[in-house]
Amino acid sequence: MDLFEYQGKQLFARHGMAVPQGEVAETPEQAKAAAEKIGGTVVVKAQVQVGGRGKAGGIKIATTPDEAYAEAEAILGMDIKGHTVKRLWVEAASDIKKEYYASVTFDRSAKKPLVMLSAMGGMDIEAVAVDHPEALARLHVDPFTGFQPHHGRWLVYHAGIDEAAQKGVLQALMQAYAAFIDLEATLIEINPLIWTADGRVVALDAKVSIDNNALYRHPDLADLQESVTDDPQERMAQERGVTYVKLDGDVGIMGNGAGIVMSSLDVVALAGGKPANFLDAGGGSDAEAVATALEVLLSDPKVKSLLINIFGGITRCDQVAEGLLAALDTLGATLPIVVRLDGTAAEEGRAIIADRAPANVVVEPTMLSAAKRAVELAKEAA
Amino acid sequence: MSILVDENTKLVVQGVTGREGRFHTLRNRAYGTNVVAGVTPGKAGQDVEGIPVFNTVRDAVEATGANTSMIFVPPRFAPDAIYESLDAGIGLTITITEGIPVHEMMRIYTHLQRSDQQLLGPNCPGAISPGKATVGIMPTDVFTPGRVGIISRSGTLTYQISKEIGDMGIGQSTVVGIGGDPIVGSSFIDILQKFEEDPDTDLVVIVGEIGGDEEEKAGQYIAATMKTPVVGYIAGFQAPAGKQMGHAGAIITGSSGTAQGKKDALEGLGVQVGISPTEVAEIVRDRLG
Predict the structure, then answer these.
(1) Where, residue-wise, is CATH 3.40.50.720 in chain B?
(2) CATH, domain range A21-92
(3) Is B100 on the interface with A (CB under 8 A)?
(4) E strands of A108-212, at which residues?
(5) Of the residues B24, B103, B111, B247, which is catalytic?
(6) Residue in A189, A234, A322, A364 annotated catalytic
(7) pLDDT tier at B104 (50, 70, 90 boundaries)?
(8) Average pLDDT, stretch B185-209?
(9) Across the interface, which of B139, B212, B276 has its CB nearest the CB of A313?
(10) What's the ipTM?
(11) pLDDT tens across A142-159, in order?
(12) Of A78, A192, A380, B72, which residue is 20 to 30 A from A19 by alpha carbon distance?
């Protein structure tokens, strides 16, 4: 689960990290009130979970509350790379002397936490990593010993942090690592971590991702979860707990398990078709899961044919067939549906479809033939 | 021969009295696996259709000599169950449970590196040596005894590839699901090493997917070490590019992680890669002659 900047900063503050004073605003009036409360110059920042906000005009400085009102009016509703701005974070402007980069992330390759620090923060840290790898100090941490002050000192010295800022940066790293552990985060990124004219070290941005599998023991974080998509099918899928991603083709695809669904997308493309989506109904798909998945797929008007590709393991193919029939009964879909069933109870499943399914449902014996058929039928319907 | 599971497997099942645990335990036994014990705290003295239940893994090992464990307990109790299995000296722990927090897995993985015990999974379908033993949730009738080894990150794709190969009359020595989570106990390399040492495996198929860099690492290992031929499959060429939060991920992974990146990396190291399950089966058939 990815958090918004303001949520990340609020969590940072709870871990003792210095962040600028700020307020959330969802209307220009609220932005103006926030600016009045904070006093002085403020920064009005679009809250979207995508990079490049500044370049897109989503971050503006306001010297008066009226300016904050005007900037908020301009930014709210703005589309930044497909994300509509619904919320702002209004915070006290900072007097920046230097911009650093700091992050704690789960390094999937090393299977350990990785702490990174650079004196060349701000824009384009990825370019810094490529062009000046020596400017980005990296250190893996043993999850049993944790992040000790000597780790922090090593990073601070090797990243070339200005001497007068070293103590503050070290403290920020310790706090960031503590937050990473406490929140069961997979990413804590602060870019920039600033050194201010009056000598403080402050987190000026916050990118925080939390491990979804750990949310059960962080109810306060689970409450922060909200839908960030505007797409009707993606919203519907999220509400019903189905793993769904929309694509731009016309062959709707569902399967049981991420691997076989990804593979189905590839095989549809190899057969000359265009996948409309990725939909994983789950490893233990029962009749109800299948019905829910179908409802999501059939609500997309772009879909011209459906490919249902099931290889039963835990999933029973007879239950999939029952779920399909039940869903078609209620939804009354007439578009062509190609079904491929293999594995656990596949023969029973095929028999159920042969006996009772409407004429628009056809069964194919293999994944390849099913994909080809679904592509042909989508082309005929187009 | 075969690897990991065979007629010498003595299986203890943690979470044997749960619905899923019981169902798959009995299926494993019906296939021929020697299931010697189950563990559910507080249920010692009971039995599951003749399989004795113990309170702890240690009790089960002492009473039955179990050498392999299968874990079916819910995610919030699974880390404890894995440590319990390791502490009881079980050589191979197979974790079916899906949804274990990644911070737990970082600690478990670090702990594992300090021993010579092996963990398969979590979030894996288990392992089967056709005709000998199966431990896990795989639909057994897909597999036939033979001389091809299969290692896969995805459950359903394991079945798909095995079936396509099987349809050509080619059987498997052992099929291993290593699991799809960001951290799993055994990598492609760990299992490739075992297949390389197995005189009854003539060819290995690695079934990968987008994300991480384990396929790329496996390619390096294959090129440097393996004499047994290896064929690859990668799923996810059409998968939407995942939204990357922040820059840290991009800094550490570079271009690895995409299906095309993995295919290019493997082929650059001399590992032939099929782009559909059918093509993989055809390559396997041609390579075996």
Answers:
(1) 11-120
(2) 3.30.1490.20
(3) yes
(4) 112-118, 136-140, 185-196, 201-203, 207-210
(5) B247
(6) A189
(7) very high
(8) 97
(9) B139
(10) 0.92
(11) 999 999 999 999 999 999
(12) A78
